[in-house]
Amino acid sequence: MSMTPKDVLKLIKDNGIQIVDTRFTDLFGGWQHYSIPASRLTEDMFEDGLGFDGSSIKGFQVINESDMLMVPDPNSAFIDPTLKVPTLVLICDIIDPITRQPYSRDPRTVARKAEAYLKSSGIADTAYFGPEAEFFLFSDVRFSQAADHGFYFLDSPEAVWNTGAEVEGGNKAYRIRHKEGYFPVPPTDTLQDIRSEMILKMMEIGIDIELHHHEVATAGQCEIDMRFDSLVNMADKLQKYKYIVRNVARAHGLTATFMPKPIFGDNGSGMHTHQSLWKDGEPLFFDEARYALLSEMAEYYIGGVLHHAPALLAICAPTTNSYRRLVPGFEAPINLVYSVRNRSAAIRIPTYSSSPRSRRIEFRAPDAMCNPYLAFAAMLMAGLDGIQNKITPPRPLDVDIYELSPEEKADIRGTPGSLSEALDALEADHAFLLKGNVFTEDVIANYIEGKRKEAVAIALRPHPYEFMMYYDA
């Protein structure tokens, strides 16, 4: 149901709201905010906007052009289910205070432009996305990095390394062995109630939830699946999802991370992203006469995503840690092929239902460290480029790719081996993102500049394991 500013003010009055929290997303996916007394919010603010210092936000303005405006979206209003003080949240779009035009580096603006470009293309009118964001819950996390030392320490009551720990009151066992965390019931799964509380709070603010479960890795790996939604709506929901996961975890004395690979020797956390195109309420990816019941359009969409995958991953798997997950083994989707059931393929075609409405592709390489507005928009633009240019993907592979001979694997492209490699690919291949002015050169340049700083920061520092390998060499 569409909301007006007047509706929002009534919602505040009817629910005794005391604080209004205005939020927006920076270029790299962080949710930023400030709060005002609810009595200060007026209808005019939904048009005039609220000022903030854009030079203090990563990837936004320089200091001599710092003034920016965030304009609340009344349709985004929700009551925060995690705060003690009654608080209404409004997600905002960013505009330039001089020109009053949408700000090119506002990720939500990029996502809106992607939806508009899809409609203008005539190919479809709606792109649906369904991300499966995975995360870890730890009970203790310590890390430090300085000139004289560097370390991290993680712990979880579920972790296999605690089988021999001395625990007050006795060690009750039921630890999860490496790679054996998929679907165990309590008491082995100690996080059932916490995940249930998370999904109830998500549902409270309008997120349609399909299921939750423990994931493969030891030490508290979890997954909560949201039902698919249109691009901007789903990006909004993923920001809410991550916010609730973190705050519910903290309320239970735990801490949540969406880092793709916090634990050595076990499965990492990805964000398998389901995608489909629709027009006039009808799905466009179904054809009962073709492989995996996929239409020709869907095949070309896959072709576009796989063709541009190295560049896409600079946005969809955007951290140095992402490429510790994208390695052989651990069910990692490192092969740039598609398949009905092969989970090491970058794109899988789910086979749980043969209904036309459930026909979709699942791009498995992204992770939840991405900025969802940019990631969903980039995936859509790659898919549309595939349709427009009739890019045929490599033949589907339904065999165990790891069992193929070197000769048989010779023509299979792989995902980039590092963030730097992915950034090089984005630098060389981003014309498809510029169509319709969806992404702009300044967005891509600022994004690459920020991410290269992260890659250099890691490259400059000794790794603790280097001491194991080289100290006495």
Question: What features would you describe in this structure?
Answer:
- The protein is α+β, with helices and mostly antiparallel strands.
- 31% of the residues lie in helices and 21% in strands.
- It is built from 14 helices and 18 strands.
- The strands form 3 sheets. Strands 7, 10, 11, 12, 13, 14, 15, 16, 17 and 18 form a 10-stranded mixed beta sheet that branches. Strands 1, 2, 3, 4, 5 and 6 form a 6-stranded mixed beta sheet that branches.
- Strand 14 and strand 15 form a beta hairpin.
- Helix 5 runs antiparallel to helix 9, helix 6 crosses helix 9 and helix 11 packs antiparallel against helix 13.
- The mean pLDDT is 94.
Short recap of the structure:
With 473 residues, the protein is an alpha+beta fold.
Over the alpha carbons, how many angstroms does the gyration radius reach? Answer: 23 Å
| Helix content percent band | 25-40%
Using the alpha-carbon principal axes, give the shape: globular
How much is the average pLDDT?
Answer: 94
Main β sheet profile: 10 strands, mixed
Gap between N and C termini, in Å? 67 Å
Q: Any low-confidence stretches, pLDDT <50, length ≥5?
A: none
The overall strand count is 18
Layout of helices and strands, plus pairs?
Blueprint: H1 5-14, E1 19-25, E2 31-37, H2 45-48, E3 50-53, E4 67-72, E5 78-79, E6 87-95, H3 107-121, E7 126-138, E8 140-145, E9 150-155, H4 192-204, E10 209-214, E11 221-226, E12 229-230, H5 231-251, E13 255-257, E14 271-279, E15 282-283, H6 296-307, H7 309-316, H8 322-325, E16 335-339, E17 345-348, E18 361-363, H9 372-388, H10 406-409, H11 419-428, H12 431-434, H13 441-459, H14 464-470
Parallel strand pairs: 1-6, 16-17
Antiparallel strand pairs: 1-2, 3-4, 4-6, 5-6, 7-11, 7-12, 7-13, 7-14, 8-9, 10-11, 14-15, 14-18, 17-18
